[in-house]
Amino acid sequence: MTDFSRSRRAVLGxxxxxxxGFLLKPRSAWADEVAxxxxxxxxxxxxxxxxxxxxxxxxxxxxPHADANYYQLRRTIAIKQxxxxxxxxxxxxxxxxxxxxxxxxxxxxxxELALIHAVGSPHNTRSHFEAQDYMETxxxxxxxxxxxxxxxxxxxRPAKAGGGLxxxxxxxxxxxxLRGYADAIATENLRNFRLSAAPELAPVLSSGFRRLYADDxxxxxxxxxxxxxxxxxIVARVLGRRRRENSAYARDSQDFADVAKLIKANVGLETAxxxxxxxxxxxxxxxxxxxxxxxxxxRLxxxxxxFRADLGPAFERVVVVVxxxxxxxxxxxxxxxxxxxxxxxxxxxxxxxxxxxxxGNLPGLAPDQLHQERDLPVTTDFRDVLAELCExxxxxxxxxxxxxxxxxxxxxxxxxLA
Amino acid sequence: xxxxxxxxxxxxxxxxxxxxxxxxQAQPAAVVPQAVRPGATAAARPKTVVDPPxxxxxxxxxxxxxxxxxxxxxxxxxERVARGGVQRWLxxxxxxxxxxxxxxxxxxxxxxxxxxxxQLIDDWLGDGWEAETRTLKELREEAKPHYREHLEQLATAxxxxxxxxxxxxxxxxxxxxxxxxNVFAAKGFxxxxxxxxxxxxxxxxxxxxxxxxxxxxxxxxxMLLYLDNAESRREPKGGATRRRRGLNxxxxxxxxxxxxxxxxxxxxQADVQAVARILTGWSVARINEGGFDFVYRxxxxxxxxxxxxxxxxxxxxxxxxxxxxxELLARHPSTAQHLAKRLCARFVxxxxxxxxxAAAAAAYTRTNGxxxxxxxxxxxxxxxxxxxxxxxxxxxxxxxxxSAARALGAKPTGSLAxxxxxxxxxxxxxxxxxxxxxxxSEPEWASGGGMLARMNFASELGAGSVPGLEVPWDETFxxxxxxxxxxDRLGVGLLGLAPDSRTLRLVREEVSSLENPxxxxxxxxxxxxxxPEFQRQ
Lengths: 418, 537
What we know:
Chain A starts with a helix and ends in a 26-residue tail after the last helix. Chain A is built from 11 helices and 12 strands. The longest helix of chain A has 21 residues, at 4-24. Chain A is 31% helix and 13% strand. A two-stranded antiparallel ribbon of chain B has the order 1-2. Chain B has a two-stranded antiparallel ribbon with strand order 3-4. In chain B, strands 5-6 form a two-stranded antiparallel sheet.
């Protein structure tokens, strides 16, 4: 876009001047908040949700390789049995990981990764957007719901720690899951999450925009702008100015690196959200090596493993949940892919996760065991998983309030968290 | 609540506008609404050499119409439309006025964007490429070095058109339909067809008949490839294998869920499969078949009997049953409702008023899907003119960028950097991956990162350093003219802010510390274009 040296100078100018400007003349409520020193909060639990947009094919992610029906249903895209070339990575004699998820095997063996099969929403919709909305509001069937389950959690509970940055979404737009909590920030890339202007204009623009957006107007966009200006100072301080720095992560996984950095910086982060797109594999989804799904899983596996390694001891207070709006047809379609289905798989990782197990109940893949004779059934409601995360990790005494109309029952607890 | 907020900011202009328009709300729908709108009375007046300035209410009406049925006003346009009357301007737009010669000239550097795919490939690979290339896949590889620039050409051309076109309503509707019938340009071979898709499937029908638009998209290679129908074949006996391909229901589902009936439109999974079977054989020609065009493959078509939405499609029917299906979908009451909702959400409010949806759906049904008539019905519905609708919508990043360029009278320079500016704002043109297209509601676009990107864009624009956009400062806002003139023309005239509004007061305070008049102008423009008010329409 512009000459690099200019824009770098511009960014430098803005952030220096704006933070200086703050100390000299705090003009709004946000300014006071930001000027406060950040409290050290090393024990705050953090929940990271990774949402696979487009309906990931769970049957090829956690593969029921002992079920002969699986190989019947998927003649060209099945992952071969363990031990064969390009075969699944066996977990327990029944299930195995897609070979491109090999980096997760050590995490599974360390019992920090639990897999839940045949999980999903009880709603029968096969519409991407409708199913995503229900998973994000956790109000299944309620099309009028406008706030998300994480947003409700955050707005109902006080901050667990100082620092001011409780919720971050790495997403081009604002995910529904976090709506209802006005201070959540959503951005495609944290490295661009700052004001930038020519140095001679930066002080005036920084002050001017902060004042223009400080008005507590009823419009979401104005509030979001005001919150973003305040939060951008924290983000800029934590991430610094380099475009990319942690070489343990591949270039396509910098979003995970940035989340890890925010977690370790103790800025009060409680929830993070990451959107990954491209899972709608209707054609040529591939088997083990080439195709859309192996490519996506390769990125996911490497990113999660790098994230785990990067966090080190801090992984004790982090839980990652990986989910998608619904699964895909058990039978492959006519074009080497799969169409929209129902039940799916969820991944839960974390230092205190009681993992190393495949949980849930996948009855089998015979026609009468499938949902409408075509899809994986849903035998575990996704809200059972989310409720356990809220109660056992975020330490919410009773998660019922987040899932209105849904009855949580103790005996259904999956037990992936103590 | 929203009304009070605007009343506070738009103390004089908006308040007058709101009062003047409120009678239109009380009118029964049968009354021709232009009779109660102030703009229309102005139009009826005989022209004199020295017109008195238009009333504040007429200016507010003009601003509202230009923000919704166009990509925002250019300098002087609010006054012009207020004088001529909003109804006359709308009628002209519905009739597609003559195109600006300025636009023709500005599109010359982007000629490549819209050439048909066959010619594009000839241009890229040179004559005789057929001798060595056999499959579309091989061709895709060979054309790879040209893709990125081609997509930038295309996005830059569309932005240029949005900024300069006299046919603003056609441009707005082209954006609407391209998003409604979204295809992801970067998927496989789709990029080669995207320019053709816009130019020959979408734009010619943007203000035409919905059923024709539907057929044009259904038969276009861009859509056939994007939603996989090109590969879908009748299911072979014993199921598909790697060699014998079969059914793919991707397009069939989105056709009903997104393009026509809507997710609650009353179709079932069985309907999805029946529709997929009806459309088997609708494909794209292979290279040895001439390549690049729609082709109907008889041997891929499922000849069995099907039932869709209770209608029997008897066995033995070929390509024609697909056309019959599209006609059935286009005429379905659920489609009228679904399209009416989407159009009212675009033109009136994120949560479209029920009266407007009903009026639009009725116009759709009455005229068998005449898009002009539907738009006209929306523009005549009292809810469109209601105070609650004005400034109620957040601009999308595209709308922000184009309206800002128009507000400053900016001209695209031909540089492809223009497309990248929109990418940084979060709405890369023609590159939304999912068939749903980009959203059209404030909660989705009001992300913190998105808002900072808008402020940064405004800062660059004020400094005149948005690559690909040239602002004729000396024509529109000469720095010698002083701050007052600028705040008056941009803040009061274009945005409709009250002269004593908090925003204008604040901008004046902030920029007065700058001594260099060019810097002062840059900062004032940046703050106004980046202001919360300019994000709204």
